[in-house]
Amino acid sequence: MSFLRIQNISHTYFTKKSAKTALSSISLDIEEGSFISFLGPSGCGKTTLLSIISGLLNPSSGQVLVEGRPIQEAEEPLIGYMLQQDYLFPWKTIEENILLGLRILNKSNEISRKKTFRLLKEIGLEGTENQYPKQLSGGMKQRVALVRTLAADPKLLLLDEPFSALDFQTKLRLEDLVSATLKSFGKTAILVTHDIGEAIAMSDTICLFSSNPGQIYKQISVPEQLRNLTPFEARAHPEYASLFQTVWKELENLEK
Ligand SMILES: Nc1ncnc2c1ncn2[C@@H]1O[C@H](COP(=O)(O)OP(=O)(O)OP(=O)(O)O)[C@@H](O)[C@H]1O
Q1: Per-residue pLDDT tens for 160-175?
Q2: pLDDT the model gives residue 69
Q3: Coiled-coil region(s) at which residues (predicted)?
């Protein structure tokens, strides 16, 4: 049984005057511990599919099963979200921000708090506990957001363009950090991105979406040689350049 099963999902948005089919017949199986990227032209339904997977949006038809059960039936927080913006509370300290999820979920205890502080340290932010988000750089705030997301110990991470607002160097450093952290905890992750290089460097599989309506056009497996490297190292590997060309051409064909 696959960890995440997306079964024949279609979704139409209705307004008073129109109907827009954002997704049509999406089926996908995702194994536990794997890293999948959703790549495709603007408006092909990537964010809609993430919202459906997270259970925030009910699809017009089809279902999403996590470990064989509908996502809505899960008791534990199965899913963590990391977005383009960090959404930290500016009036709360870093410590209060990273512990917030645990408090809301009633999971705040000595062990979970210690684990969260250890994660903050591992991620290079020890000593920032009493600071406020405005005192940190954009990259540091995204790292805090990652700690907050992981604190609740979700099994599945949904990453909706989490690096796109960062400068290039910070983005590359954070890609390495996020990739290493998720691998070490054995988390399953889905990344929505517009960046072909990021999709290749971080993923095991890339799902290419076509639009109108959004469909999975192709699934591309990232070669083993690249998967065993850090994202930064992968970008320097000869296989990276050739896969980049392949994906680029596929996307160009889609836009014709
Ligand atoms: N609430 C809504 N009501 C009506 N139409 C919507 C709504 N949300 C999205 N859409 C439409 O559904 C389609 C898919 O949108 P979605 O945001 O999922 O695409 P996307 O691939 O994430 O786009 P982008 O890469 O630009 O973020 C688009 O045509 C969009 O205009």
Answers
A1: 998 888 888 888 988 9
A2: 86
A3: none
Instruction: Give residue 251's region: left, alpha or beta (phi > 0; psi -120 to 50).
Output: alpha
Contact 35, 82 (CB under 8 A): no
All domains of the chain, ordered by start, with CATH? 4-78+155-255 (3.40.50.300), 86-153 (no CATH)
DSSP string, 182-208: HHHHT-EEEEEES-HHHHHHH-SEEEE
State the Rg of the chain over Cα. 19
Query: What pTM does this model have?
Result: 0.91
CA distance 23 to 16: 19
Query: Which candidate, 187, 214, 217, places its Cα nearest to that of 202?
Result: 187
Are the beta carbons of 173 and 163 closer than 8 angstroms? no
22 lines ligand 1 (CB under 6 A): yes
Rounded Cα distance, 255 and 33, in Å = 32
Atom of ligand 1 nearest to the CA of 49: 18
**What interface predicted TM-score (ipTM) does this complex get?**
0.97
